[in-house]
Write a structure and sequence with these properties.
alpha+beta; TATA-Binding Protein; 2 domains; four-stranded antiparallel beta sheet
Length: about 280
């Protein structure tokens, strides 16, 4: 299926969450640069392509069978896959965990508020991930996880989870987006990449705001997934790319939250000018 960046209506919040995940997937042609390729072994390189192909398959199945995957969130499924890749060890093409460690992880997840509040268990989520090919089995005192259709995927995910500053934002977002540029060094998306997921309407407004700020000599900064504009050391405005409701763009001018799709764009630009003049006179 094709996930439309301009989609406005969703059957449920779960559908919206999966849609927001899917429209952010970065194709290997973009994230798998020549510089990254030179650092990849054969298994990791193959896994990069499988990572993207699998997340397309997973998001499509989640969207089309939301009633099966819910009430767990899409984020909770990703967290499981990250945990498997992070804390296990590669054995051939599988991830191996000591069974005692896995049982401790399972107990921690099951008694946590995030699972209890939704009346779900880790086993419930794992069974759903079987739909798209996850296999897991016991051998002696270990549990193994693998994807027979995506044989090399865990080589890549395990490498990703060992990359620099992986516990920090925006690295956490890169797992969801198949961002291979995070595999071997810290990576932060630039302005154009942050706007990758937004609708055409949102992008036009973002560019209009940016062009206006350039004219006023208001500087732009990128901080995680927030685009900030400052003048004389003070923030004039910022906007974030968020998927909780269409059309995914929020603009804050000083302490005032502006919806540029309900407010006239000329008024938004005028407020930016007014904010700069207030700072200049202070």
């Amino acid at each position: 299926m094709i996930f439309d960046k301009g989609q406005k209506d969703f059957p449920s919040d779960f559908h919206r969450e999966v849609w927001w995940w899917a429209v952010g997937l970065v194709p290997p042609a973009e994230s798998l640069t020549d510089g990254v390729k030179t650092l990849c072994g054969a298994d990791v390189l193959a896994g990069c392509y499988e990572w993207h192909a699998y997340f397309i398959t997973l998001t499509e199945d989640m969207y089309n069978h939301a009633e099966t995957y819910a009430p767990a969130t899409a984020r909770q499924y990703r967290d499981i896959l990250e945990a498997i890749a992070r804390s296990g060890e590669i054995q051939n093409d599988a991830i191996q965990w000591p069974l005692a460690d896995w049982k401790q992880y399972e107990e921690t997840k099951n008694r946590g508020k995030a699972y209890k509040s939704k009346s779900i268990t880790l086993d419930y989520c794992l069974n759903n991930l079987k739909r798209t090919g996850l296999k897991y089995y016991l051998e002696k005192e270990h549990i193994f996880f693998e994807y027979p259709k995506y044989k090399k995927i865990f080589h890549t995910l395990h490498t990703f989870e060992k990359s620099p500053h992986i516990e920090k934002t925006p690295a956490r977002h890169h797992f969801a987006h198949c961002e291979c540029r995070q595999l071997f060094k810290s990576y932060a998306g630039n302005y154009d990449e942050l706007l990758r997921r937004v609708s055409d309407e949102s992008r036009a407004i973002a560019h209009a705001v940016h062009a206006h700020c350039q004219q006023l000599k208001i500087q732009r900064y990128i901080h995680f997934d927030t685009i900030k504009f400052k003048y004389a050391g003070e923030r004039i405005l910022h906007f974030t790319v968020a998927g909780d409701e269409y059309p995914t763009l929020r603009v804050n001018i000083g302490p005032v939250k502006i919806n540029p799709f309900k407010d006239d764009l000329d008024r938004v630009l005028a407020l930016i000018t007014e904010r700069k003049e207030t700072i200049s006179k202070a």
